[in-house]
């Protein structure tokens, strides 16, 4: 009976066996081999098998070295050549849609080597990333993307950017069936065995792995930080791209890619007007202009607990009640770009008070608002809420691992210097002088109202 009813019989041996029987081995097997670079890519996230320490100072000035939650590695690999296009390390407990967008951005934008500070750590001269080695692959785009059904991957914002900016189709595949994404799964396995599992702070592949020897104590003792892991990961992936791979006739992924390009198999390239970083990390929203002449409240829009305005809006009480379409850079909420209902550009709105000074992400803004609502974080209009939140995390990080990861994420972004925004006087003129061409990607629902929209421009940081 098992031989006649294979699918039903497999249920006797567990759900995993039954699922594989349902989704693999049937129909036309292994479609014609994909040989054109970037025709199809695979994406996935993998929790790195290493304990990582964070070093920070308390408000009293004491240095603390404690363990963080394990980090996530997100990566995109090309099916045809097995070359890794780009990656991103997420410090979140579970990676988010924003992390996925950062990975997509890193896979498309030109890559530069990191400055290595770990003694003896170096790049293999035969390795590298596609955009480093081949100028024709800077801003290269893929046609199809395979990933799993994780919430972050299926987020509307992620699918919208893949469709509108990358211009690729999306294939989420069956739930909990990694065999459909075997190349990226094997890559993670190779990276662990040849890299992370050889580190003294490895957690191994399971709790009883003999390679697991007090990883947390080791990470603290040798002060192995997220910055170290970032450098090691960059070198490991770069070297992987220069290592012979049996799946491509023992060529290295970069050699295979070079041969295909030499034969004229060039992928699509992103148009120049779409290359601003904000494209990858943008979010569309709509808000009504508020204000009250009788109460002396000048016009403003309200977004995530903060007022936004510019000089033009502040002097335009006639616009109260008008809807504005907003384009938000989720990585920097100091400013928001606004458009009138007819699609014409209204200008750049700046966050009120100290919110408009320190760069901060949408995720950080939401965390601050939540803590303030719970009365766990206090600050006045004169205080910088980002600095107050940073001090709060320093205090919480003594006992809370989630706070440690958030503190590490903030420290990573702290290398972005505060930039001086255009002064309120002559606000619109200053903005026009510092902008660069950029295309407005609106939602499908708004398309009919935006046919006559103008090209808008982007402040550079």
Automatic annotation (TrEMBL):
PROSITE patterns: INTEGRASE. Coiled coil: none annotated. Residues 1-31, 196-215 are annotated as: Disordered. Residues 33-261 form the Integrase catalytic domain. SUPFAM superfamilies: Ribonuclease H-like. Residues 1-29, 206-215 have a biased composition (Basic and acidic residues). Gene3D superfamilies: Ribonuclease H-like superfamily/Ribonuclease H. This is Integrase catalytic domain-containing protein. It comes from Ammoniphilus resinae.
């Amino acid at each position: 009976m098992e031989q006649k009813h294979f699918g039903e019989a497999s249920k006797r041996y567990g759900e995993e066996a039954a699922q594989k029987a349902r989704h693999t081995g049937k129909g036309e097997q292994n479609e014609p081999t994909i040989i054109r670079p970037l025709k199809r890519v695979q994406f996935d996230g993998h929790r790195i098998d290493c304990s990582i320490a964070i070093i920070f100072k308390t408000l009293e000035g004491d240095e603390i070295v404690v363990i963080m939650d394990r980090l996530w590695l997100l990566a995109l690999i090309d099916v045809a050549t097995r070359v890794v296009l780009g990656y991103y390390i997420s410090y979140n407990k579970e990676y988010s849609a924003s992390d996925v967008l950062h990975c997509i951005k890193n896979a498309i934008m030109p890559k530069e080597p990191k400055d290595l500070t770990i003694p003896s750590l170096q790049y293999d001269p035969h390795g590298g990333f596609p955009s480093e080695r081949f100028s024709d692959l800077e801003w290269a785009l893929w046609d199809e993307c395979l990933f799993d059904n994780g919430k972050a991957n299926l987020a509307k914002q992620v699918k919208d950017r893949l469709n509108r900016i990358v211009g690729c189709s999306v294939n989420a595949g069956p739930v909990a069936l990694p065999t459909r994404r075997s190349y990226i799964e094997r890559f993670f396995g190779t990276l662990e065995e040849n890299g992370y599992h050889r580190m003294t702070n490895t957690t191994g592949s399971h709790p009883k792995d003999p390679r697991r020897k007090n990883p947390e104590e080791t990470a603290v003792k040798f002060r192995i930080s997220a910055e170290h892991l970032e450098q090691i990961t960059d070198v490991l992936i770069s070297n992987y791209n220069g290592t012979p791979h049996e799946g491509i006739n023992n060529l290295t992924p970069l050699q295979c890619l070079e041969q295909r390009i030499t034969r004229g198999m060039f992928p699509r390239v992103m148009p120049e007007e779409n290359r601003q970083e904000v494209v990858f990390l943008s979010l569309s929203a709509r808000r009504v202009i508020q204000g009250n002449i009788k109460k002396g409240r000048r016009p403003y829009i309200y977004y995530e607990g903060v007022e936004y305005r510019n000089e033009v809006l502040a002097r335009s009480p006639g616009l109260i009640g008008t809807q504005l379409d907003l384009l938000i850079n989720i990585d920097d909420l100091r400013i928001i770009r606004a458009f009138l209902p007819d699609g014409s550009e209204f200008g750049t709105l700046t966050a009120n008070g100290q919110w408009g000074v320190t760069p901060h992400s949408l995720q950080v803004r939401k965390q601050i608002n939540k803590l303030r609502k719970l009365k766990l974080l206090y600050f006045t209009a004169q205080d910088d809420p980002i600095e107050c939140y940073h001090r709060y995390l320093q205090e919480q990080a003594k006992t809370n691992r989630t706070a440690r990861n958030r503190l590490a994420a903030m420290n990573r972004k702290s290398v972005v210097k505060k930039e001086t925004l255009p002064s309120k006087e002559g606000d619109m003129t200053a903005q026009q002088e510092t902008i660069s061409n950029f295309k407005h990607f609106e939602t499908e629902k708004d398309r009919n109202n935006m046919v006559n929209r103008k090209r808008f421009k982007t402040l550079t940081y």
